[in-house]
Amino acid sequence: MRFTACSLLLVVLVAGPALRSAQAEDSDKPMYAASATDKFMNVPGLPTCTKNVVLSGDPSKGGSLMLIKAATGCLVPWHWHTPTEKLMFVSGQGKGEMKGGAPVMLHSGDYLSLPGKGVHQFTCIAACTFFLTSDGVFDIHYVDAAGKEISPDEALKSKAKAKMPMKKDMKDMKDMKM
Fold first, then answer.
1. Which residues have a Cβ under 8 Å from the Cβ of 83 and sit 6 or more positions away?
2. What is the 3-state secondary structure (H, E, C) of the chain?
3. What domains sit in the chain, N to C, each tagged with a CATH number?
4. Which residues have a Cβ under 8 Å from the Cβ of 52 and sit 6 or more positions away?
5. Lowest mean pLDDT: which of 29-33, 80-84, 100-104?
6. How many CA atoms lie within 13 A of 103 on its CB side?
7. pLDDT digits over 57-96, tens only?
8. Residue 3's Cα: distance from chain center in Å?
9. What are residue 120's DSSP bridge partners?
10. What is the pTM of this model?
11. Distance of alpha carbon 161 from alpha carbon 22, whole angstroms
């Protein structure tokens, strides 16, 4: 499984700079990111029903801020991250589940903080848009029902057929305004 995590990290290292949308060169300067010009992309190792854009930082090197859109029915199966992950919901409806905890329903304006190495999954109930911050290098480790680490391919293929977004959902995602 270390090979899988290293492979995913390598993909993030290579794709990270390409995903960056708008960043101030110096952290003491103001930064503005117009959502109309953001280039949302699929990220290898994540479900294709999600599209991400990096707004600040570099997920392959440390803390970052990403804007994410997910289609209705999109499922990011059970997984964990090394750093703490924080979600701030802009629109839509989602469900966050932590192993051993009660599910939470997320709506516009809601906030969810997930501790590092906490096993969780996310389901988009109605076309979702949210900000995600990570306080360290972004990684993702998928796990099976027993909690054993599995490859992204294995985790995502078992969910792919049941959770593939419909063309209408993808169009709705493209037409979302912020």
1. 63, 116, 134, 135, 136, 137, 138, 139
2. CHHHHHHHHHHHHHHHHHHECCCCCCCCCCCCCCHHHCCCECCCCCCCCEEEEEEEECCCCCCEEEEEEECCCCEEEEEECCCCEEEEEEEEEEEEEECCCCCEEECCCCEEEECCCCCEEEEEEEEEEEEEEECCCCCCEEECCCCCEECHHHHHHHHHHHHCCCHHHHHHHHCCCC
3. 2-22+33-174 (2.60.120.10)
4. 19, 40, 41, 42, 43, 46, 66, 67, 68, 69
5. 29-33
6. 12
7. 999 999 999 999 999 999 999 999 999 999 999 999 999 9
8. 21
9. 79, 98
10. 0.74
11. 34
End-to-end CA distance of the chain: 38
Per-residue pLDDT band for 25 (boundaries 50, 70, 90) equals very low
Rounded Cα distance, 14 and 40, in Å:
16
Alpha-carbon distances of 115 from 21, 89, 120, 160, 176, rounded to whole Å: 27, 17, 10, 27, 29
- How many C-alpha atoms does 93 have within 13 Å on its Cβ side? 4
Smallest CA-to-CA distance from 52 within 86, 16, 97, 8 is with: 16
